[in-house]
Amino acid sequence: MPEGDTIYRAARALQKAIGGKVVTGFETGLAKLARVNDDAPIVGRVVEKVESRGKWCLIYFSGDLILVTHMLMSGSWHLYRTGERWQMGRARMRVVIRTADWDAVAFNVPVAEFHTARSLERSDKVPKLGPDVLSESFSVEAGVARLSAYARENPNAEVAVVLLNQRVLAGLGNVYKSEVAFAAGVNPFRAMRTITRREMELMVDFAQRYMKENVADGLGDGIVTYSGNRSTTHAMDREERLWVYRRQGQECRRCGAIVTMRKQGVQARSTYWCPGCQPWVGMDETGAPVGRIDRRPR
Ligand SMILES: [Zn+2]
């Protein structure tokens, strides 16, 4: 499993376990972190969120303090129930964040530092995120501008891989990626240079709407609604509300063609699409898009 994805999953697991929780204990074997903790104690702060940026893991505490760790080859974050025996020796412990139920333990992390939002912004080591699709200030225009700029520099990048790239747009996960491409009628394997402005607008607009609906529904990680039907928020109904995600081999809800799945990108993430609703569009020798690009997505 590639490292970026491992860290993505580690950050997600940390978010689920300690996100929103009050820190009841903090230990570190790293002098630099200990000094910050002496001056501005971590205990009593709330873990606001945990996110991954490439190979970096960021843990945001209330009061504008962010613990930034890089795993390199040797480091790892472990989660243990309170009192559970650790699988690595204490000598390798670098950081422990304790909440009522969990110990989050970083072993052997070679890079660990505290930042404020401002110092993080200034850091040129930690990759910057693209505009957050869920933020109040996000606009479709801003999202399209990011996609167009990326397309100019990476004309051959496949569109669904780009939708997942948190440095282009922050927030979209693997579920939304497929759902958004479907809703916009865009084949997820198309090169960025074949994507029209109108298609970018549709994808960004759907991304924003789906994610907002999802948050409003209070559903967990990465589940999309397409109906906005607030009455069907139960876990059992989730799959019923998806267009293509995890629906390979089943009929498209729109055209009846068979939904397909293929692994995509260096991280081999599963991509789902309907060959009927999301036709392939290639390029001719002059670089002009060829295929059913005139098709109007609904
Ligand atoms: Zn279809």
Shape: elongated
Unreliable stretches: 218-236, 293-298
Order of helices and strands: HEHEEEEEEEHHHHHEEEE
What integer is the average pLDDT? 85
Distance between the termini: 37 Å
Percent of residues in beta strands? 15-25%
Strand tally: 12
Explain this structure:
The protein is built from 7 helices and 12 strands. Helix 4 (140-153) packs across helix 7 and helix 6 (174-183) packs across helix 7 (197-217). The protein has 298 residues and is an alpha+beta fold. The longest helix has 21 residues, at 197-217. The strands form 4 sheets. It has a 4-stranded antiparallel β-sheet with strand order 1-6-7-5. A 4-stranded antiparallel β-sheet has the order 2-3-4-8. It starts with a helix and ends in a 7-residue tail after the last strand. Strand 3 (56-61) and strand 4 (65-70) form a beta hairpin. The structure holds zinc ion (ZN). The site of zinc ion has 7 residues, from loops. Zinc ion (ZN) binds next to loops.
